[in-house]
What we know:
This protein is mainly beta. The chain has a single domain (22-286), classed as Glycosyl hydrolase domain, family 43 (Tachylectin-2, Chain A), CATH 2.115.10.20. It has two helices and 22 strands. A five-stranded mixed β-sheet has the order 2-3-4-5-9, with no helix packed on it. The protein has a five-stranded mixed β-sheet with strand order 6-7-8-10-14, with no helix packed on it. The protein has a four-stranded antiparallel β-sheet with strand order 1-22-21-20, with no helix packed on it. The longest helix has 12 residues, at 2-13. It is globular and about 45 Å long.
Amino acid sequence: MAAICVCLLALLCLGFPAKGYTPHFHDYRKMGTVDNSAVDEASGLAASRAHRNVLYTHNDSGGHNLIYAIDATSGHVISTITISGAKSHDWEDIACGPCPDKNGHCIYIADTGGNYHGEANVLYKVEEPDHLHHTQTISVGHSDMLHFSWSESNCETIMVGKDAEIYLISKVGNGRGKFFHIPKSNWGRSSTVHVSSSATLDTYSSHNGPVGGDISPNGHEVIIKMIDHVLFWYIPHENYAEGLKRNPQTLPYHRERQGESVCWDSHGNGYYTLSEGSQPPLYYYERLD
């Protein structure tokens, strides 16, 4: 018993919480309002790894192949970025993480929405630009696209691990979405990759869900967004397929008009939410412990 206690104490001293770790967060703080009328159906959110206090978002079905860089402290749109070579059928989520094949930070976009009958099923990746300008263009080539097939017809959640592995969760009627892993080795393949589910979320929602999600920068924490709440899992072993089978914890959430976006900040010190609609407020929930 003494040896076990010593090991647990050592883990805590190294910054690893115990297995039953329960985080605590402040209630919401409104950081500002997105001030560009072009952002009217925000359907994804991701914290830049290359630029301090910058978030990326994009519009839902019917939008153009554009992402928007937003000041996380005010909601001001800093940059409108055209993703040349990418099609926008029904972009539903966005994530940031390491690039799979080289040093640097990448932005990942999921064209996986049900408004296109689930027929697009394409992922895009682009390296984060060194500088953000009012308008700019980033091009994607064959190696920046990943076409896949699966059993699902709708997906609004893409997550990227700290090792650049890709994870998707399907959107279903009761919120018990299926979890899929797409290995990073599949980028640039000429053929369509077929993926199979390895887990089902142990969740319930009265709405279709989930509608967004994110893995923390250290890889140990997952947040999943349902329409009316935010869920949390602590997964220190980073085996997400197994970890997401457990019951989640519910985090603070201020109900939004149609909130479909959530992400950790770039250090995992809190999380942001953003809703669809014109001039949506940007909310932040800061970690207390």
